[in-house]
Amino acid sequence: MLAIQGLRKQYPGESDPALNGINLTIKQGELVAVLGRSGAGKSTLIRCINRLVTPDQGSIQWNDRSVTGTTEKELRKLRGEIGMIFQHFHLLPRLSVLTNVLVGQFASMPLWRSVTWSFTSKQKEEAMEALRQVGLESLARRRVEELSGGQQQRVAIARVMMQRPKLLLGDEPVSSLDPVTAVKVLDLVKVLHREQGMTVLLNLHDVSLAKRYAGRLIGLAKGGIVFDGPPEELTEEALTRIYPQDEPQLTEQEMKIDEHANR
């Protein structure tokens, strides 16, 4: 279970917080989508959960272990259970597809093996199996930079599979993809969620995709939760709270917050 209490984050130089007292509990095995306009705090929330961003106040616990109050050594172990899919893939473009997938083993490897990039035969077999599951085994030796955006995101998912995470986070994982490819990637995430029983929390811009794939939706606006419920309860009134009609454009402040969160 993921338990968040009183989570607050304010970036330097900003008058308003990116997150303003978030309280949220996500049960084991849920697939949850977070909705909200740019600058609402979605990326900051996701990145606080695995401590890519350090919150100012509040607590985060994953399976009764503190994420916010842990040492760097303990945090490294926790991150081994928490997979992350990014909007821009965060792959190593000049290296092979297979090597990029093997990097997913770093959190569970002895430090000397990570530093020397020494992978075992068993790890290589597991990486090839992960690539088979995402349909890219034939491209294992290709350099990542030669792949399409959709293929690169599938490589990123195969890399996460190597971690065998219990919690999967996605920070706008399909926003840079075309609609058809976005559906294919989310189909894959849904299969992994169902087959491996992992807890999934995704930031999504597309409301229709969120309603299609998630069993629970969280709506953020100005750093606070303004909706929490199943897709069928996402009414027009709720959408107006998440996407205020009187604010059609990003303010300068919101753009700064969004830029901070996506660094």
Describe the structure in your own words.
The chain is an alpha/beta fold and 263 residues long. It has 2 domains: 27-53 and 70-81 and 165-263, Rossmann fold, CATH 3.40.50.300; 93-162, no CATH class. It is 37% helix and 21% strand. The chain has 10 helices and 10 strands. The strands form 2 sheets. It has a 6-stranded mixed sheet, with helices on both faces. Helix 5 crosses helix 6 (149-163). The chain is globular and about 50 Å long. Residues 109-116 and 247-263 have low confidence and may be disordered.
In CATH terms, the superfamily of the largest domain is P-loop containing nucleotide triphosphate hydrolases
List segments where confidence is low: pLDDT < 50 over at least 5 consecutive residues. 109-116, 247-263
From the coordinates shown, what is the CATH architecture of the largest domain?
3-Layer(aba) Sandwich
- Give me the side-by-side strand order of the main sheet: 6-7-8-3-9-10
Global structural class: alpha/beta
- Summarize model confidence as the mean pLDDT: 86
- State the CATH class of the largest domain: Alpha Beta
CATH topology of the largest domain: Rossmann fold
| Distinct helical segment count | 10
Order of helices and strands: EEEHEEHEHHHHEHEHEEHH
Major sheet: 6 strands, mixed
Distance between the amino and carboxyl termini: 27 Å
